[in-house]
Recover the amino acids of this structure.
């Protein structure tokens, strides 16, 4: 059997770097952010404490404006807080073993799913819960074969999609996988799907959520052709279909790149390799018009592979990676640059479950912005800045209530505002409502909650 180029790169370059054989300290030293950054630039953050330089780690959104990182060279669990620009090493008991080439995906609320990995080869399913800082080893009756360099992404609710990867049963390497699996946390089950069409078997693609029950996959090392892919595929859980998209402009063939959702219908892609050289390209895919757009930021990370990426609201976080000289990085980058985005908890139609929204209604939709121990919603939210709807950019604010309420019975007063239904832009099938705005101090805020849109 053939060993994929992606696996070879991990086994040689990455392991050499992790063992201390890299030729440099892991990229340029961290410096203060550039004073003037455009909306299309990357911002290099300067947290006082951060994970050590690493590649082939994995990250996923967790909690509010936070991201979980695990593995890459050890069994450390780290959480990054965007609003505070701070990495915190957590200390959960009994974490997964150290690994490379695994995958993480948000699975709702404060929880993240981990599956697989290389060195050692693994087929375990783990769930991390930020609220109590615990890793829990799950025990599904059926599960994917042990693998690494696969792709995973949240696909709505408490479900995660897994595709592809390098499946190692016994040496030499077995063929790469073309399987589509869905994990359901509430039932602790892996289900092997059977879509009529699907991407070919491949390792080291990248995948990201793109709203509702859809994910977008790009690239990878394709065993069927023996080369690298420049294909864009979209999976829809509602009808179990993979659709191959067709664009005249798109990223070149690559694998070992990273992708993250930017909210709404957009996904960010950075870096990767064509098997000869790495690149530093920034691309944005928009599902609504099926277009890839190459961005040209003046400030950006250096060319790299094996980096980890995850969404933080309408921004994306990048950490680490391996440069052309096989130096590991400990850099933390955010795209797009700009003021930190604070994630806030919201409750659409407090007291309702499900949060049904009727198309054509002439009324309003109440949305509660919830206070927390470090966020006083009535005092800190600039009411005039609020927008709400399908993308969060809809100017639908009708009014905010003058009487404050504790809608979730936590002892803290919350802010309840009403938005004109006809101006929210919701469409049949939408599953999420997004609120955006600013604090009185000018910090951008964003909150999301589930909805059920009915005709």
């Amino acid at each position: 059997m053939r060993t994929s180029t992606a696996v070879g790169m991990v086994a040689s370059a990455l392991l050499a770097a992790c063992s201390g054989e890299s030729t440099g300290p892991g990229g340029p030293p961290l410096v203060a952010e550039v004073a003037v950054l455009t909306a299309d630039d990357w911002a290099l953050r300067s947290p006082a404490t951060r994970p050590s330089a690493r590649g082939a780690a994995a990250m996923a959104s967790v909690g509010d404006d936070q991201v979980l990182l695990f593995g890459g060279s050890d069994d450390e669990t780290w959480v990054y807080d965007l609003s505070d620009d701070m990495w915190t090493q957590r200390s959960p008991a009994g974490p997964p073993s150290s690994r490379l080439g695994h995958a993480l995906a948000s699975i709702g609320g404060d929880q993240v799913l981990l599956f697989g990995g290389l060195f050692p080869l693994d087929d375990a399913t783990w769930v991390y819960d930020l609220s109590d800082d615990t890793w829990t080893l799950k025990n599904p009756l059926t599960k994917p074969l042990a693998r690494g360099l696969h792709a995973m992404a949240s696909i709505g609710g408490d479900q995660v999609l897994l595709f592809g990867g390098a499946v190692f049963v016994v040496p030499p390497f077995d063929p790469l996988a073309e399987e589509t699996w869905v994990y359901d946390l509430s039932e602790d089950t892996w289900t092997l799907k059977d879509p009529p069409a699907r991407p070919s078997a491949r390792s080291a693609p990248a995948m990201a959520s793109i709203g509702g029950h859809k994910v977008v996959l790009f690239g990878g090392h394709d065993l069927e052709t023996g080369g690298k892919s420049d294909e864009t595929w979209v999976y829809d859980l509602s009808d179990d279909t993979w659709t191959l998209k067709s664009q005249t402009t798109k990223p070149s063939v690559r694998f070992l790149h990273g992708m993250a959702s930017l909210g709404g219908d957009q996904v960010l892609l950075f870096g990767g390799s064509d098997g000869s050289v790495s690149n530093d390209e920034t691309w944005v895919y928009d599902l609504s018009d099926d277009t890839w757009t190459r961005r040209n930021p003046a400030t950006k990370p250096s060319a790299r592979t094996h980096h980890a990426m995850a969404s933080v609201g309408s921004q994306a976080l990048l950490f680490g990676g391996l440069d052309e000289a096989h130096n590991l990085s400990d850099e933390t980058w955010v795209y797009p640059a700009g003021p930190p985005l604070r994630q806030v908890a919201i409750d659409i139609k407090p007291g309702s479950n499900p949060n049904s929204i009727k198309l054509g209604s002439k009324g309003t939709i109440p949305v509660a912005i919830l206070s927390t121990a470090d966020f006083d919603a009535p005092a800190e939210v600039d009411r005039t800045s609020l927008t709400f709807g399908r993308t969060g950019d809809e100017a639908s604010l009708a009014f905010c209530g003058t009487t404050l309420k504790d809608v979730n019975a936590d002892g803290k007063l919350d802010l309840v505002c009403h938005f004109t239904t006809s101006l929210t832009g919701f469409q049949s099938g939408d599953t999420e409502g997004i609120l955006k705005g600013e604090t009185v101090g000018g910090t951008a805020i964003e909150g999301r909650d589930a909805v059920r849109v009915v005709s």
